Amino acid sequence: MNLSYAQLISQNRNFRNLLWGQFISELGNWFNFVAGLGIVRLVSGESPIAAGMLLFWRTIPFAILMPFAGTFADRYSRRQILIISDVLRGFFALIFLLVTEPDDLWIAYVASILVSGATAFFDGAKNAATPNITGKEGLLSGTALMFSTRFLLMAIGAALGGIAIVVFGYEIAFIINSISFFVSAYSIWLIPEEAMSERSPLQRKLESAQEATQSFFEEIKEGIHYTLKNPLALTILLMNVIWAAGGGATNIVFEGLGVNVFSDECWSTDFVYSVLLTANGVGLFIGMLIAHRVGTYVEKKGITRPFIGWALIFHGLLFAVGGYMPNLWLVVIFVIFSRLLIGAEYAVQETMFQRSLPDRIRGRISTLDRGAEITMYGTASYLAGVSLTIISAQMATAIAGLLAGSAGIVWLIRSRNFKDDKNASVETIAYDELEIHNTKI
């Protein structure tokens, strides 16, 4: 049985605190994102390569540190990791205030690296703790709510960030971002340690003493071995990396559409970029909002596997076609529908994945997958920035959409042997694949 959104929120105080903390920090984070890209655009003379470099340094440190962050989340206190990461991000966000001229671009990159690195540890601990906080019955709704609020704030934060920049300047956006992290840290502090893991702090200490002979890097190796031998985990990793090859270009092609395509329609680049980011967030939010109904329906009908594949394919096609629309508002419509599909698909996919992972290793597996995806995402962001010096923004948008959609083809091919009959739920499919792995080791 999957709990509804209302049931989960009303019955689970710890989840409410986690959700509230994410809500506040994500709101500030999108202020930072719009302001950071805006200040880099301003001091670099609207260089697409400089914008691509900023996104590269926002993502690559995150990707590199994710496997380490996951191991930390499996070995140490997840609550402490979350709080410390938030406090550090609060201070790091203020470094952007020092960027005032072209020679300061390196400061923006360093600030991005620091915030990104701390975020890797925050996300690693959060991803590992969320299934424990929600419980098995609340995981689908919890996953949808966590991501739907994130994407809602992509829309609200991008829009409010654009307004704040126009009215108050870039500095206010960076200060708001800093404050949001401290508020998030307080919200996490309200959640007891025992709610974030199946093992008590005492059990963790005993296990740590018993496993002292296993090095930190051996634990990382164990997570990699699990991923490579588990058919479901490996398929999801491959699929997410391929998706990121196209998805990583999203923010840069939005920037390109704002600078090169719609700037002659009497709109500022900041406004166009904020509108497209808002559309992106609205679509993802709606997709996550309906994910509970969609996930429950596809489980009952036994069509989880084809739903994931075809949703990915059609979302990519919609995004690709949207890039060639003749005016901004038609692009917005195509972006919203594309993101609606991927939002619902991702909630179903992520729930299936998280349910399949044992608690003791969940941090390592989920962060390995996320790290590989973000590595490709950051690389694609940089390459998209370079490509805009060669090809049009419309063509870059089409290529990004087709690449992202091809992940659905990979899923449909590799998941053909996954059990998916009418009586099989998302959870059943995941655990069947786990059993396949267990028989091989």
Would you spell out the secondary-structure blueprint of this structure?
Layout: H1 5-11, H2 13-44, H3 48-75, H4 78-92, H5 105-134, H6 139-168, H7 170-189, H8 201-210, H9 216-229, H10 231-247, H11 250-261, H12 269-289, H13 291-301, H14 304-322, H15 328-356, H16 359-387, H17 393-414, H18 426-438
Q: What would your notes on this structure say?
A:
This protein has a single domain, classed as Growth Hormone, Chain: A. The chain contains 18 helices and no strands. It has helices spanning 5-11, 13-44, 48-75, 78-92, 105-134, 139-168, 170-189, 201-210, 216-229, 231-247, 250-261, 269-289, 291-301, 304-322, 328-356, 359-387, 393-414, 426-438. The longest helix is centred in the first third of the chain and has 32 residues, at 13-44. The relative contact order is 0.16. The model is unreliable at 209-213 and 420-441 (pLDDT under 50).
Tag the structure with descriptive keywords:
441 residues; mainly alpha; Growth Hormone, Chain: A; 81% helix
| N- and C-termini, Cα separation | 31 Å
Strand % is: under 5%
Q: Which architecture would the CATH scheme give at its second level?
A: Up-down Bundle
Number of strands: 0
Mean residue pLDDT: 79
Overall number of structural domains: 1
The H/E string reads: HHHHHHHHHHHHHHHHHH
Radius of gyration: 21 Å
Helix content: over 70%
